[in-house]
Amino acid sequence: MLDLKMKWLDKYKWLSYLGGIILTAVITLLVEKSCNRIIPDDPIVIKEVSDTIQMIHSYDLDFNKDSIVNAQLKEKLENIRLTHLYEKEVEDNLKKKYSFNSIKLDTVFFKKKGYSLKNAMAYFSVKMSSIDEKFLDFEITFFDDSFIDNIYCLSININSIEDGKRYNFMWENYSVNPNNNKIRINNMLPKGVYEISIGFFLKRDLNNEYPAFYKISKLVRK
User: Fold this and answer.
1) 61: number of CA atoms within 13 Å, CB side?
2) Using CA atoms, how far apart are residues 198 and 117, in angstroms rounded to an integer?
3) Model-level pTM?
């Protein structure tokens, strides 16, 4: 009898293999369905940026259970939140970066007969775009932001130089910002040599006959 059973098992042992394959398939299916409850196959739109739609999965978390999967998904959600905050910060910085100081139309020097000149290199630095560009941009960086409260206005003075003489081409005053002081002017300069001065006047000098113009000058050729 035992020999007959052994012969039968040897003859039909493929049945045990088939049973193992079926059991493995069932377990795999159950695992996939469990995962789909955590991370669904169909993504949902949570944010639209310009013309691009960012799509991510909606996570169904059981925050009461302490598991590696929950911890990983919590971390992903936190990273997404931080990304959104970073995007907003970048947008705000871009707006600040590309906003320019406005012309100060109400400039008043009550007793002004002229002005004196002083060097301003101890107060700020300035970056100027190429003289050949369509616009001339001046990016002014003050070394001490608290000093800005003392400034009445920013000024740009452009003199053309011909035969050793200076002829005023432009003088414009601008409002001063607490930060990000950037001035743009249309480059209408004809060919020639120019002295471009960028600087400021102080509030305390408004009543002086010769208020001081604190400036940094650059000599350029177009």
Assistant:
1) 18
2) 12
3) 0.57
